[in-house]
Write a structure and sequence with these properties.
Length: 288
């Protein structure tokens, strides 16, 4: 065989062998990287429902010929499966928080709520397909939305928002929150989140961060910005997000309606001494 040809073939074989080894190493490395990924499987159903009604007899109530309608719109992110955990407590808590009179199931609760729209205590309700576009009409409404706002492999937080209008100058929107610990199967309440006798320190942190939010340095300046500084309290309506505990205040609770809802974000390390160890672990041992 020609020496140069032999050397060329040998070189090519070596190159193929080295390339194959590198590819095998790369495949093993990729496989190891994939194995390090944690999979947290979630199954949820977005449930929605809309019902529209004509309020019969409303013209006598308002003493004019204005047509009055009422609409109910419901949208819920309903948890079915999450990481193999038992979600019964979470589901029951959602039902109790979303609906005034929850039924045994989410579907039954939605149907019952939609059958009792705003104004049903005043008027006879006639269900209709849709509300006609009329300039002079008055439309009562109730919107109910439940959605995830924070998720980690250790806990999940839901916002339950309800917006209603039943006449008057404006409607009202309120939000409430549920924080659920997957590992313990419990809903986080104020009492199991914070240590006993920690109220003074927590309230101080809320006031400090409220002043930071409004870029002021005193309660007097907060008053000047429209905050009811003498009415600031520890809201037990809170949620966890990132490394913060967010205290929520609905309209009128610590400020006028025009200020809207107020969220006071408190980094956990500012009140670490007030938190139970399990909550600190949730906030520090998370993946986002």
């Amino acid at each position: 065989m020609n020496t140069k040809l032999f050397i060329g073939i040998a070189t090519a074989i070596m190159a193929l062998t080295i390339g194959a080894c590198k590819n095998a190493d790369r495949d093993r490395s990729t496989s190891a990287d994939i194995d390090s990924i944690t999979n947290f499987e979630i199954k949820q159903t977005v449930k929605s429902l809309e019902r529209n009604y004509l309020c019969e007899g409303a013209e006598t109530y308002y003493d004019d010929s204005t047509e009055v309608y009422s609409t109910v719109r419901i949208a819920i992110e309903w948890p079915e499966e999450m990481g193999g955990y038992n979600l019964k407590t979470l589901q029951d808590s959602l039902l109790a928080s979303i609906f005034d009179k929850p039924k045994a199931t989410i579907d039954a609760s939605m149907l019952a709520s939609a059958a009792s729209p705003e104004g049903s205590d005043l008027f006879k309700m006639k269900q209709i397909d849709s509300i006609p576009a009329m300039e002079a009409a008055m439309v009562y409404s109730r919107d109910m939305i439940a959605s995830i706002i924070t998720f980690s492999p250790n806990f999940i937080s839901y916002q339950i928002m309800t917006a209603t209008y039943n006449g008057g100058a404006h409607g009202m929107t309120e939000s409430h929150y549920i924080n659920y610990d997957f590992t313990t199967g419990k809903v986080l309440t104020y009492d199991n989140t914070f240590k006993a006798d920690s109220e003074a320190q927590v309230l101080r942190a809320i006031k400090d961060n409220l002043m930071t939010r409004y870029n002021v340095s005193s309660m007097k300046e907060l008053d000047d910005r429209g905050i009811f500084s003498d009415q600031i309290y520890i809201s037990k309506n809170f949620y966890l997000q990132g490394y913060e505990i967010v205290f929520h205040y609905n309209p009128y609770e610590i400020a006028p309606y025009s200020e809207g809802s107020i969220n006071v974000r408190v980094p956990y390390f500012q009140i670490e001494d007030c938190l139970n160890p399990e909550v600190i672990q949730l906030l520090t041992d998370n993946d986002f």
